[in-house]
Amino acid sequence: MALIVQKYGGSSVGDIERIKNVANRIREYHDRGDQIVVVVSAMRGVTDHLIGLANQLMPIPTEREMDVLLSTGEQTTIALTAMALHSLNLPAVSLTGAQAGIQTDGVHTKAKIQNITPTQIHDLLDAGNVVIVAGFQGRTPDGNITTLGRGGSDLSAIAIAAAVKADLCQIYTDVDGVYTTDPRVVPNARKLEEIAYDEMLELASLGAKVMQSRSVEYAKKFGVVFEVRSSLNANPGTIVKEETTAMEGVVVRGASLDKNQAKVTLVKVPDHPGVAARIFRFLADAALNIDMIVQNISHGSDSPSTDLSFTVEKVDLAKARKLFDGLKSEIGFQELVTDEDVAKLSIVGVGMRGHSGVAARMFETLAEAGINIEMISTSEIKISVIIALDVAEKGLAAVHKAFVEENTTGA
Amino acid sequence: MALIVQKYGGSSVGDIERIKNVANRIREYHDRGDQIVVVVSAMRGVTDHLIGLANQLMPIPTEREMDVLLSTGEQTTIALTAMALHSLNLPAVSLTGAQAGIQTDGVHTKAKIQNITPTQIHDLLDAGNVVIVAGFQGRTPDGNITTLGRGGSDLSAIAIAAAVKADLCQIYTDVDGVYTTDPRVVPNARKLEEIAYDEMLELASLGAKVMQSRSVEYAKKFGVVFEVRSSLNANPGTIVKEETTAMEGVVVRGASLDKNQAKVTLVKVPDHPGVAARIFRFLADAALNIDMIVQNISHGSDSPSTDLSFTVEKVDLAKARKLFDGLKSEIGFQELVTDEDVAKLSIVGVGMRGHSGVAARMFETLAEAGINIEMISTSEIKISVIIALDVAEKGLAAVHKAFVEENTTGA
Predict the structure, then answer these.
(1) Neighbours of B262 (CB within 10 A)
(2) What gap in Å lies between CA A107 and CA B18, rounded to an integer?
(3) Tell me: the pLDDT tens digits for A51-85?
(4) CB contact, 8 Å: A51 with chain B?
(5) What domains lie within chain A, and their CATH numbers?
(6) What is the pTM of this model?
(7) Do B143 and A99 touch (CB under 8 A)?
(8) Option in A68, A82, A93 nearest B79 (CB)
(9) What is the spatial distance between Cα B107 and Cα B148, in angstroms, rounded to a whole number?
(10) Confidence check on the interface: ipTM exceeds 0.90, yes or no
(11) B63 touching A (Cβ < 8 Å)
(12) In whole angstroms, how large is the CA radius of gyration of chain B?
């Protein structure tokens, strides 16, 4: 007998038929004697409908009331899911986030979980119930309804799994698990049996859509082992957990391509203390998210200058260009060069740490494919390069073949 | 400056435009310095949609989960109403039934209010807010969501008005107030300026659709003065309050017609102790609601017998007939006679108490109109008669003319 937390997203509970499917899956686990806590999202489309109503009243609805409004979406799903289980003669009780003891701070629409008091969940489980909890929501210490923002239901599930000390947390979604790379781009991509938190985090930050970083970070912090798997079939998914020695045998866990980045270069920026700080303060104040930053050594001994490059999201490029056009004399750079026909190609793996030749092997692979590298950025377990957009998929395929399909150590 | 509770039903908040209208009305009161608590229902159609979803899962959904599901309807409205006020730059805060301190018993889908702790409402009012409360819902002492059943939002408003000691409670609906009779049947019907609780209760029990009896009873018990008025115009409505000496000057406040009753007569029922008790126990056990009961003196000295008549709802007539067909020998009556082509005509007024001639005047009026009376039942402030369905509206018009339009004392 195990204590399992299962999370079903909006597409898994998208209509009454899918809710019935979810109930049948829960029954399988219940019948083999497991205790089950189910975390559900709003049915697909419900949240957008509610936002649409709010926007007819205010372009930017007040955040406290937005939380009161949006939390009805998950509350609807918990009641319907409980009924679906009742129709199978399974005892089940629904709980809102507040009733489940999920306490958050008061930052409406993007609240942080402060703590979970799972007394009610345990009592209901001990009485033989499946417990259905509304994801994405909680309450402040003084009783206001809050929501957790993007990826909030995953976070609810991970946090509840930590609080109830679950044996396993299953994140049901519409993909089979975590892949070595995007199978739509590289047909040879394969599903991973397991992946380390840090690898998952790097993949999440690279735009792999499986999960938000905050949920993975929470799982890592509290040591919650979770499985990403499909609600549409019975295939095992990918287990996400703390890295093991065995994992280091694989140098590169996966490869990823992000086509949403654009490159900005400030040419001949005066190289004296504080200039870079001021540039990135301007960007932060304009709420522009920066990803890669590259600065090389400077040239010129009298008034040394350097080229400073960084990447922004493509949708923010016009805004960034306008910002720096107005700052040219203030900062004193010579020229602004931008390029949106680029992509960021990355490889990720905790095994990289022990293998100094991985970067060299990646650059060689790209060179053999005739692909020029425009920017390079590395972390302990990731190497990212900016390359031209029109050869990006070719580059991904080449790197995936070299590191994953041929499973070379890269050294 | 007054403290006012306003209740808006499902048609008054039926869509975003109507919610905006409600917000504008609230602003008028706010601008003149009143403190306002607003109680809202679910938007028209929302509750039916949710019931439809539940019924796709279970023919009779579990009641606890039905409450979790249905309470999202009012929660949606409170958030949208608060946003509508924010868009007018009015400070407003929404509260679910639980947050507003509405505590109920645990009888899901038809819970009774046990007490209200209005601390939160007072704090928010004192801070200058309009407070928007979800009608129809509350919470049990151990934190389960409950709903109050039919007419629940009216009850929420009346109970909150009692708890916060409001100066006035306004029930906004789609009619202008309480009329002397149904204006669709009698064009000369007129809106009442005021009516006593007991008169309102008799009218409610007679099928006047304005309000459920339980809300009026609650108002009477706690002395809550309330006004029934339209959300579609600015006309004053009808004030419902404890009767005053002045009210007794009017003998008949209103007249009403109920076409949903059918007459059942058990002919020659043995007249000995306990027979009537057994008959109505059978009816109660079959969950058949009885309205009027008439039994006259008995005949025959050896084995005395009597005729026993009562009315049931027309939809229950077949059930009643089947019940008594099976009990004929057990009870020992001679014959079962039923008639569904009847209607119940009633006049109501607290002023009747001091005027013994009212019944006589009513019967004379009907006789003059050539209408035969089949059954009679009276209470302290009401006289009801059963007459043939095809002359029922004619009878109503005659009685309304005699007692209301000509405003005779009836004595």
Answers:
(1) 23
(2) 31
(3) 999 999 999 999 999 999 999 999 999 999 999 99
(4) no
(5) 3-174 (3.40.1160.10), 246-411 (3.30.2130.10)
(6) 0.86
(7) yes
(8) A68
(9) 9
(10) no
(11) no
(12) 24
